[in-house]
Protein 1
Amino acid sequence: MSEFVRFIALRYFTQSHRKHTLSLISLISVLGLSLGVATLIIVLSVMDGLIARTEEIVLKSTTHANVYRLIGNFDTYTEVEKQIKSVPGVLGATPVVFREVLLMSEKGLATAFLNGIDPEGYKSISDLPALVTKGDYGCLAKKDKCVYVAKHLFEMSELDDFLGETPRLFPAVLGIDLAEKLQVVPGSVISLVTSGSRSAVGEDAVPVSGNLVVAGIFESGMYDYDSRYLYAGLEETQKLLDIGHNVSFVSTKVDQPGKIEDFRTMMTERVGGFPFAVQDWRDLHKTTFKFFHLQKLIMFIILVFIAVVASFGIITTLIMLVIDKTREVSILRSIGAKKRVIRGIFMLDGFIIGLLGTVFGSIFAVIVCLLLKNVEFGISKEVYFFSSLPVQMSFLTFAAVIFSTLLISVAATLYPSIKASGITPVEGLRHE
């Protein structure tokens, strides 16, 4: 773009016979575009925060990949565990028994997922011990020596002696929202009912029941885990379910979860392929991440229309500028200015309005995002999985919004600039 075009465009933008009217309309156009840009960036930053927070909690509180046996009993997990640990980059591997159960307390009823784990081995693949806010995670390893369990075993001893049975009570760690549903605290006893093992192929599973004592309550920050997960010792879970020396899968943790697909391939090769299969954290939480990404895309498409509506202000401003500058444009045409030069002048004026709106909107969005980060803004964790609003500003988000807005702004200048380039030398000087 030539220096001549820039000079005339800036002069037209700052000086006019209808200066006050055009200045007001230009200001409204800039403000409208600024609000559109700010809204886009703020909403997308919140969605980026939700996705990042979900990934953070998933990678912190759960495993990165699970190794399953597709057919037959999984009683060779010790050997599989050794093979997985030999893969470069694997930080830990431990067996887990996973079963859906029904929990009952004196004041509540809830369904949940029971995880039978090796308390020491699970520390190498999860931050669960650090997430326990009440009680004692160490009770999972102490078993009968745990103060909560010992207390209830003593209280149950007389009745069990009378019935001729051995007391069966083992500790468990519950999510905070699950504990609220059941209205229990560390030391409370809850009953468990689930399906046990099958004595023969084709037979229905026999229901089994047992008693758990709440040894601890954890809080991951993600409602899906805090409301549905509980953890107990591996051996106690195997005995309760009567599954012998079998587990559901071997859970693992890697040093680079972003490259989990490469680890998945190496793990599959290391265990020999079929009948074993590996499911990584992205597959395990595919529905959740798809929900967030789809919601982000929909919000982007909807909110772009705010910028489109704001662009009509640019069109109005330029049309009025063309009307106001008809005489000047005729003079330029009479001295030999080409149509593309006239188009460039008015397109540059429109681009300046779009650029100002984009810059001010981006600055405002940054301020609001920083405020949202520092202010505890509560949301429904049953819907969005979190109790507070996470915000993450991303360069790619800013770049996408800025590029889209400037593109819309340039598109809005096409019609007025084409009309301006169509002004003839005679048309503007007819009444002079």
Protein 2
Amino acid sequence: MRHKIIYRHWQPGDDDAVLALLLPTEQVDENIYRNKFEGSCIEPEGIRLALVNERVVGHVWGESCSFFIEDECQRFLIMGAVFVAQDIRRQGVATRLMQELHAHFQTKGYRGSILDVDTEEAIRLYQKVGYQQFTQDLQTQIPPNPNASPFKWTQTNLKDLNAFPELNERWGRQNFPTNCDPKSIKVHPYNMSGYRVLRHDHNIVGYARWEGPSAYYPDGLIRDPVVPDMDPMEIITSVQAAIPTTRTWAAAKSGRYEEPLRACGCTLDPTTTVIMLSSFGQEIDLTGYHRTAWW
């Protein structure tokens, strides 16, 4: 027996019912969800719900973000927290929620939607609403090399942060997706200890997410460095000169560093994380863009 399902956007007073659906499977953090409107990335109309007899049985939300594409900064939807109650599945609920969310943001002039998935089932679901796979996260182990490099990786300080917006803009004109929203700052005083900057003499020419050893990454982790206008092999050499032991390097399929890392003898293994893209209106042409897993 099919249930009568009501679809609408979030309204005040919905949080308890939404969290009753999402918390048991750890889809969201309660504190973050209850404070979701504190920034400007989420709006009530950007959260779609499915209800049966006032019980929330389906949920999806979209965060606003801007990326460089087609030679300009354009707004995109970041899809997240897509979930449907077990007893309501296979009735097209998730598909309809996402279609309604897409329609809302398309009327506001958004260029498309991006999300990441890690299961074949999720890939098939998103393909039904127009998503296509456009890259996949890769990982490799990069060994140290004590050979000298004219470029030096150093800890990030407050003054260094001023250089990041320009680096992002130049990087974003060749790599996708790269955040260009000034209201959504990726590196700030509270997390800058997890980043390093690349210097040539006294000039900052790039930066990278540079994580120390942890339970998840025992060797530490370096993500594709944001270094525009430089030979990738020079950047790889600079990283090898800066690390005392082997590090994990996170890259993206068809990214700027994939082939240079392979040329250095690194084996890049695909992870389960697949990045998918849905264009709103005219298909987005990614010809000439390197892929990057920005999150």
Protein 3
Amino acid sequence: MKNITFNLAQLHQHGTAFYDFLALRKRFFVDQLGWDIPHDDDVEMDQYDNPRAYYSLVLQDGKVIGGARAMATTAEWGAHTYMLRDAVAGKLIGIPENIIPAAAVTPNMWECTRVVVSDEVDTHAGRSECLGLIVDGLVDEASAQGATEMMALCPPSFARALRKLGYGANLIGEPYVNSDDGRRYVAMSMPAERRKTGAKTPAKPANFVNQAVSQVAVQAPASIA
């Protein structure tokens, strides 16, 4: 497995990787979870895929098998900022406005969204390694620009999976149930640091890692207010 990181100004350096990541997102979030989010027959792409976003993808034999995006909490693009801040401001239907106590606006805090690992990675060890590469790539991009903390909206199980991989993930809000897929989500934060070596691999089947990884930090399945 190989990790690549880039922003929109650099995506041409990686061939079709960005488009392939959007296609992977569409297959999971739209085709499998049935979310009502912007997409066509091939890809899923929303308002947070803009020049303020950075991406961390994992390739295997040249094929995108996982990825995520991140941006600083100071990001603004048109009428939008970052996902959790827009939720607190009431701009997103489906995510409670009290999902976090307050919306941070600081270059020290970055938000991670749209984490997904392909179903083609069908072993627990493979999915865990893919997740670690994705998160390490996000940490590298964020910390290089001064970030010390990262946050996300995720299933509670995802924070546990991160801790077992060696990341210092902690929940920072109350969970809610997504009305579209019936799953519980909660805000979490962690230091912008790579996983600690020697961490124990979660003693769970591949399905546990699948559920934890591919649901993290996603926009609610609804339109923008």
Protein 4
Amino acid sequence: MKNNYLKKYIISSYVLVWLLIIFVAGTASLIFHAPPVIMWIVRNLIAWSPTYLLLIGWKHFRPDETRTDFIKKCFSGKIKPVALLCSFFVTFGISMLALFLFSVLEGKPMLSYMDLGSTALPLSIFLSFTSGPTGEELGWRGFMRQEFNRRYGFLKSSICQGLVWCFWHTLLWIVDSDFTDWRAVPYIISNIVVITSITIWMNLFLERHNNLIYSVLLHFGFNIVFVFLDVGIGFFVILTVLHLAVTSVAVLLVRRGWGNAS
């Protein structure tokens, strides 16, 4: 496969999401003043852009394989219930631990940082699940992971994937963040570290199970917390340290296990 296929996909995915954010989300918000639920649906449609791009532009990115064969391969691994639960609770658990530590430092109960908002709980969960978790994984962990893995070893490949995925969100840091002053710096650092760490966790599961449902639940376990969370920048600092520490330990243990197995 030609080396420029991956580059074409990455550049195209950035251009597409930025155009959609500016012209679709921007129009819905600034011109039509769409209510929060409608804006949430718009964001979900935009979150699916890596998958739209991959499937519509298939011949430009993977001409030697059919879409059907590719999708079957992405979901070919056996589903194990315990591992599936673990994939969700890895990211969910780290976020909740960060919230617990943040609440202790602030001297407030954890529930005081949770805001259920005006959207019904079942709808909030459904919209969260049908955004990035189901919309992005076929492109990122399906196509992009395979392409990076052809070029690099596990850790370098995972870091490259994480950075691509992370900076794909760049425009959102500007238009959809409460941290626009000095707090933007630790917030961006947190995004880089946390998203890269989550990518490593996804790839650890996928190396063993080869089924995107694991990365979908990892993604969902992270996203669902932030649907209801209203916290200060201190939370993101704690979250960054936890992800860096826990992911580093996991990589060392797993790679040691791989070494012993060989």
